[in-house]
Amino acid sequence: MIILGIDPGSRKAGFSVLEVQGKKMTYIASGVMKFDHVDEFIDRLGLIYQACDELITKYQPEEVAIESLIYVKSVEALSKLAQARGAMIAAFKKESTLKVFEYSPNLIKSSVTGHGHAAKDAVDRSLSMMFGKMTFKTNDESDALAIAVCHALNRTYHLKTMTKAKGISP
Fold this sequence. Notes:
Elements lengths: L1 E6 L4 E10 L2 E11 L6 H19 L3 E5 L7 H19 L5 E5 L1 H9 L6 H12 L7 H27 L5
Parallel strand pairs: 1-4, 4-5
Antiparallel strand pairs: 1-2, 2-3
Helix pairs in contact: 1-2, 3-5, 4-5
């Protein structure tokens, strides 16, 4: 199974691709999508959608994991992040068979490091222990890998919860 992890943002967003076979996770790729060369926020939304659509085409993931909204001090920043996430999710859900899951920052950190309030360097160290020494261009890229790992580790529980909520027998 191929999992695409996304650390959303309105100026840049991290992505990571993992292949999961049973309990084995294999790192495929990661990077940062940059949108900040477009000054007007409203004009970035189409670019965000297109970039996510290209990721789907290139990597053909079966599931996407994205970080849920986080608390920010600025209502304007929260609004832009929510709209950027919406553009991303719309691109991912264009293919009706693609499943999208969201995870809180604390669950992501806890899944990767064992501590929900871990610092960025602790997350990076844990990822390097899992996949070997890695150098990330930005925290967005390492966060995206952590999101993909979180989903790989929690997807069975998440799927069971979704199935129960919909009233479907496993």
